[in-house]
Write a structure and sequence with these properties.
The structure holds two protein chains of two kinds.
Chain A: H1 2-10, H2 47-52, H3 57-70, E1 74-77, E2 80-83, H4 84-97, H5 101-113, H6 116-147
Helix pairs in contact in A: 3-6
Chain B: E1 2-6, H1 15-28, E2 33-37, H2 43-47, H3 59-64, E3 74-75, E4 82-85, H4 94-101, H5 104-113, E5 121-125, H6 132-139, E6 143-149, H7 152-170, E7 177-186, E8 188-189, E9 192-193, H8 195-208, E10 217-218, H9 222-228, H10 243-258
Parallel strand pairs in B: 1-5, 1-6, 2-4, 2-5, 6-7, 7-10
Antiparallel strand pairs in B: 3-4, 8-9
Classes of the chains: A mainly alpha, B alpha/beta.
């Protein structure tokens, strides 16, 4: 019996999370960073203006960095770059089923492309994500530019 | 489950080193071993390769019972038999909880009962302070290993730890017995032991008796090397340095048998 429990512990994948422990004396940089915020992303700011204003690059840089932090992080997964959390979820899901992410993607496409309503739903979501990625790329570029003003 | 707490009431006495090497060796010899990091400095957690997010369950939640016990137990990369209940800085906040509970010294023992059938051995790395956490980890122990530096400071640490143990026994908060006193950083030059080391180890023998003083952990960089490389001493080719732990494991084997 105890060996079963041990195996369960060894293979434990779904571990509940707890309320983040906080140090009473140290202020956390982003205590409110919750995944739910992904849906209420801030509206794009007029970036051309920001790029030209060299008066206070430190502030602008800080703002951009802060905004960038609000977007989900990505991670390179083989040749595909996926959202970090989603990537973990998908990898775990496929691992538990004993399949690879690649074949899951193939199968998902096969099924989805046969269903117009579903394809529509997926493309809407995909477009939203595409816009978000573009914004992230833009911010990263601006940060690089502002970080190296001499070049 | 045999619960062994590694405790010594000063910093740098070799508590984490002892707990780590003992846990690794026991688990590699086939004993299902649960390590428990009860020091908010969480060095054991780090040495075992864990970097926790603030929302992952730790010993804090295990003690407070805010999640299921098994959710606080993590398998380690070391081997299949070695598990850890980790800690982070915030473990310090459990002090109030323990003191307000009214059963601070016996609380961990109670919490460990539900998982006692799963593991053969539980090794607890105690904090150096005489805090509520320290009381509860001694309260939970069947046996105590007291590592103490072979120096005046180490001798003092041993004496303070023995005082605490007898105080807790006196009020019925623990039944822990001493498994051994482990002289740490014992300095030798060739075949000659440093004077301070010899005086300290002699003092330790006077305190607990010849039989309970284990072979020393010699002053050596090899231990740190093994910790940094996340391996054992014998795998690095220093089998002789593992001798103190082998003696300890022999003792533990006997105690598991009699339990």
């Amino acid at each position: 019996m105890s060996d079963n429990v041990l195996n369960q512990l060894r293979n434990k994948r779904n571990r509940p999370t707890v309320t983040p422990r906080q140090d009473a004396l140290l202020t956390q940089e982003q205590p409110q960073a919750q995944p739910q915020e992904q849906n209420s992303l801030p509206q794009p700011t007029p970036v051309t203006e920001l790029a030209n204003s060299t008066a206070a690059p430190a502030d602008t840089l800080g703002e951009l960095k802060a905004e960038l932090e609000k977007y989900p992080q990505t991670r390179r997964h083989s040749a595909i770059v996926l959202e970090k959390d989603l990537d973990q979820e998908l990898t775990r899901f496929c691992k538990e089923l004993g399949i690879t992410v690649e074949v899951f993607l193939e199968a998902a496409w096969t099924v989805a492309s046969a269903d117009n309503a579903l394809t529509e739903k997926i493309t809407t979501e995909a477009k939203r994500r595409y816009d978000q990625r573009k914004r992230v790329g833009h911010i990263k570029r601006l940060i690089t530019m502002l970080s190296n003003p001499s070049k | 489950m045999l619960t062994i707490t590694v405790s010594s009431l000063s910093g740098g006495q070799g508590k984490t080193t002892t707990a780590l090497f003992l846990g690794r060796l026991l688990s590699r010899q086939g004993f299902t071993t649960l390590m428990l990091d009860s020091d908010p400095q969480h060095n054991l957690t780090t040495y075992l390769g864990f970097e926790l997010s603030p929302n992952q369950p730790t010993l804090l939640e295990f003690l407070k019972k805010t999640v299921a016990p098994e959710d606080c137990i993590y398998p380690t990369q070391d081997n299949d038999n070695l598990f850890l209940i980790p800690a982070d800085d915030q473990l310090d906040t459990v002090q109030d909880y323990l003191s307000n509970s009214g059963v601070g010294a016996t609380l961990l023992k109670r919490r460990l009962e539900v998982i006692s059938k799963i593991f053969k051995v539980c090794i607890i790395d105690a904090p150096p302070q005489r805090s509520q956490i320290c009381l509860t980890v001694i309260g939970a122990a069947d046996f105590l290993i007291i590592p103490a530096e072979a120096s005046v400071k180490g001798y003092g640490s041993l004496v303070r730890t023995l005082d605490l143990l007898s105080g807790l026994r006196d009020v019925g908060a623990t039944n822990a017995e001493i498994l051994g006193v482990l002289p740490f950083r014992d300095r030798w030059f060739g075949n000659t032991q440093a004077q301070e080391s010899r005086a300290a180890v002699d003092g330790m023998r006077d305190e607990v008796g010849e039989k309970l003083v284990l072979p020393s952990i010699r002053e050596s960089e090899r231990y740190k090397q093994a910790i940094n490389k996340r391996t054992t001493l014998s795998q690095l080719g220093y089998t002789d340095l593992e001798y103190p732990f082998e003696i300890l494991i022999d003792k533990i084997r006997t105690d598991i048998g009699s339990k």
